[in-house]
C-alpha cells in the first residue's frame, strides 16, 4: 500500500500502488464485513454502484473469498440504476450480473433489481416500496438516528465530475431529504432517465466504501480530500458522510494530486 490516513472528518483514506492491489484489499474488506454481519444478524445487505466499481470487485470471486463468504446471506441492491431494460448495455444490473453476480451463489431472490417495465417515477416508487417491505421483514435495518434504511455496506464509485450514485453536481436531487429513492430524467451523463438513492439513505449506512481508480479522477479527489470548500460548493462526493464508517479505496493514479 502506498499510504493510509485516518482522519475523523473524511474517513479512512487508503492509497494503493495499483488498481490490482486496491481490488485485493477491497475483497478482503468486503469479506470481513460479510463475516461480521452474517455472524451478528444473519444477513448482509450490500448496495452496488455501476461503472468501474464492478471491475474492482473481481477479487471477491477468487480464493479464499469465493469459498469462505456465506453468499446465501447476501442481499444485493443498487444505489442507482438506469431506466433501461435489464439486458440493455447501459443497465447497471447487467454490468453487475456479468462481472460479479453470475460468479457467486447469491440466491436469485436476494437480488433486488429495479422493475424495468416501469417509468422512472414508477420504478423509483416501486423500489422504495420494496425497501420498505424488506425493512418490515428486518432484512434491511432502519437507522434509529435518521429513520432511513441503514444498509450494512454501500460500495460507491465516483464519476470524474464528482457525482456519486445518480446525484450530480448542481442538480436539485442532491438536496432530496424525504424520498428514499428518487428519479431523474435529465441526467447530465447518459442515459438521462435513472433512479437513485437519496443522500439521507446513503448517509444512514453502517459502512460506505468509496472506490476510485485512475488519473482521470485525480482532480476531483484533490478537491474532495484536499480542500476546505464552503458547504455550498460541495461536490456530491463530498456530501458522502455516513453515520457509520467511511473508507476510501484509491489507487496511486487517483491519489496523484493529493
Ligand atoms: O453513471 C454512473 O457513474 C458512476 C461512476 O462511474 P465510473 O465508471 O466513473 O466509476 C457510477 O458510480 C454510477 O453507479 C453510475 O450509474
TrEMBL record:
Molecular-function GO terms, alphabetical: 6-phosphogluconolactonase activity
A Pfam family reported for this protein in Swiss-Prot or TrEMBL: Glucosamine_iso
EC primary class: hydrolase
Segments forming domain Glucosamine/galactosamine-6-phosphate isomerase: 18-248
Keyword Hydrolase: yes
GO cellular component: cytoplasm
Reactions this protein catalyses: 6-phospho-D-glucono-1,5-lactone + H2O = 6-phospho-D-gluconate + H(+)
GO biological process: carbohydrate metabolic process; pentose-phosphate shunt
Pathway note: Carbohydrate degradation; pentose phosphate pathway; D-ribulose 5-phosphate from D-glucose 6-phosphate (oxidative stage): step 2/3
Protein EC: 3.1.1.31
UniProt keyword terms in alphabetical order: Hydrolase
SUPFAM superfamilies: NagB/RpiA/CoA transferase-like
Family annotation (CDD domains): 6PGL
Family as reported in the entry's similarity comment: Belongs to the glucosamine/galactosamine-6-phosphate isomerase family. 6-phosphogluconolactonase subfamily.
Protein name: Probable 6-phosphogluconolactonase
Source organism: Coffea arabica (Arabian coffee)
Lineage, uppermost ranks: Eukaryota, Viridiplantae, Streptophyta, Embryophyta, Tracheophyta
Gene name of this polypeptide: LOC113702107
Amino acid at each position: 500500500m502506498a499510504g493510509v490516513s485516518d482522519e475523523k472528518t473524511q474517513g479512512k483514506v487508503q492509497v494503493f500502488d495499483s488498481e490490482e492491489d486496491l481490488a485485493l484489499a477491497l475483497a478482503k474488506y468486503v469479506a470481513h464485513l460479510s463475516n461480521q454481519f452474517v455472524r451478528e444478524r444473519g444477513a448482509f445487505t450490500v448496495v452496488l454502484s455501476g461503472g468501474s466499481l464492478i471491475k474492482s470487485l473481481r477479487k471477491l470471486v477468487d480464493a479464499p473469498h469465493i469459498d469462505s463468504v456465506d453468499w446465501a446471506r447476501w442481499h444485493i441492491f443498487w444505489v442507482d440504476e438506469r431506466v433501461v431494460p435489464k439486458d440493455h448495455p447501459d443497465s447497471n444490473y447487467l454490468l453487475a450480473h456479468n462481472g460479479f453476480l453470475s460468479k457467486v451463489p447469491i440466491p436469485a431472490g436476494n437480488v433486488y433489481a429495479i422493475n424495468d417495465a416501469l417509468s422512472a417515477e414508477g420504478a423509483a416508487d416501486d423500489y422504495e416500496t420494496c425497501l420498505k417491505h424488506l425493512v418490515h421483514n428486518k432484512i434491511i435495518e432502519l437507522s434509529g438516528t435518521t429513520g432511513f434504511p441503514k444498509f450494512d455496506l454501500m460500495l460507491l464509485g465516483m464519476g470524474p465530475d464528482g457525482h456519486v450514485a445518480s446525484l450530480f453536481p448542481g442538480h436539485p436531487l442532491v438536496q432530496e431529504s424525504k424520498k428514499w429513492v428518487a428519479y431523474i430524467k435529465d441526467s447530465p451523463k447518459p442515459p438521462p432517465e435513472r433512479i437513485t438513492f437519496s443522500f439521507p439513505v446513503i448517509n444512514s449506512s453502517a459502512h460506505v466504501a468509496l472506490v476510485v481508480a485512475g488519473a482521470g479522477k485525480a482532480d476531483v479527489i484533490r478537491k474532495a480530500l484536499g480542500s476546505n470548500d464552503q458547504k455550498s460548493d460541495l461536490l456530491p462526493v463530498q456530501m458522502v458522510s455516513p453515520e457509520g464508517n467511511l473508507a476510501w479505496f484509491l489507487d496511486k493514479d487517483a491519489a496523484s494530486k493529493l
